[in-house]
Amino acid sequence: MEDIYTVLRHLEELEHSISRLYERFSRDFSNDREASFFFYRLSLDEIAHRDLVKYQLKLVKKSKPDEFAEVDIDIEEIKELTDNIKKEYLSKDELSIEKAVELALKIESNAAEHHYRQAMKQARPELARLLDSLGRSDKEHLAVIRDYIKTHELGI
Predict the structure, then answer these.
(1) 21 occurs within a structural domain
(2) Residue of 76, 147, 51, 75 lying closest to 105 (CA atoms)
(3) Hey, which of 7, 50, 73, 101 has its CA 20 to 30 A from 29?
């Protein structure tokens, strides 16, 4: 069991890391306007996700200690994913567009973000509607990435 504040701090870092990775890809593919814009748009969405987590952190910080329940979540999974993403955006290796899109697909398919929403619902059920909205956004990311793969006939 983890306290919700700790979970949210790690999730904020995760969302920020994802955004930075997509920003890097946008720069890396600046010679391909469509690919650059694709990653730029994903990056902006991740910034919005990070800001939503920040907002939830503020709610938790302002609340009474017993207002949020502890949550059953594997925080190590979140830390590991964040570390892997940081290594990727700090790497000097240049990825092909196929590898970058494949990595984005893996990130967006990862269970960590889903677990986070479930954790928040456990901690405070009245946040469910807000969290479901974030979940829809993640599903839209997956659809956008899959559409990009199909449209550009990437072998992923």
Answers:
(1) yes
(2) 147
(3) 50
Say what the pTM is: 0.85
113 pLDDT band, cuts 50/70/90, is low
CA angle 37, 40, 41 (to 5 degrees): 85
pLDDT score at 155: 84
Q: Is residue 87 part of a domain?
A: yes
Are 115 and 73 within 8 A, CB to CB?
A: yes
What is the number of structural domains in the chain? 1
Q: Which residues contact 22 (CB under 8 A, 6 or more apart)?
A: 39, 40, 42, 43, 46, 104
Q: Which residues pair with 71 in a beta bridge?
A: 2
For tokens 């910080």, name the residue.
61
- Give the lowest-confidence range in 9-23, 55-69, 111-125, 138-152: 111-125
**CATH at 76:** 1.20.1260.10
Q: Which amino acid is at 150?
A: K
